[in-house]
Amino acid sequence: SCTLIVAGIVQPVWCPSDKLCQTNALKAETNANRWVATALGAVLIHEVASLVLTWNTAKKAMHIIHNIKDFMIPGVFMCVTFAVLIAENLAHMNDSKWHAH
Packing angle between helix 31-58 and helix 73-92, nearest 10 degrees? Predict the structure, then answer.
């Protein structure tokens, strides 16, 4: 509701329909997005490896400690967050510039 009110007041323009936005979008540098996506990919691989190792270690103790799976939830959230950030940076380094600026 509040979002719709703000969108009605601001009236954002879709970038492909605005010449100034298209001009600025073509000039925009995307190297930062490439580096960030690469670094996030490395961190994601590290976090997934950590999760796999934790899971393999925790399997042996699951029958003793019943809530040991709860210790893996933050790592799973980190993996999901890194994946979303990678997707966002990949979208911003795309040449089509479909997103709003």
Answer: 160
71 Cβ partners below 8 Å, 6+ apart?
Answer: 54, 58
Is there a contact between 97 and 11 (Cβ–Cβ < 8 Å)?
A: no
pLDDT in tens, 16-58: 777 887 777 777 677 888 899 999 999 999 999 999 998 898 8
Q: Would the pTM count as exceeding 0.70?
A: no
DSSP letters for 18-54: -HHHHHHHHH---HHHHHHHHHHHHHHHHHHHHHHHH
CB contact at 8 A, 3 and 62: no
Three-state DSSP state, 79 = helix
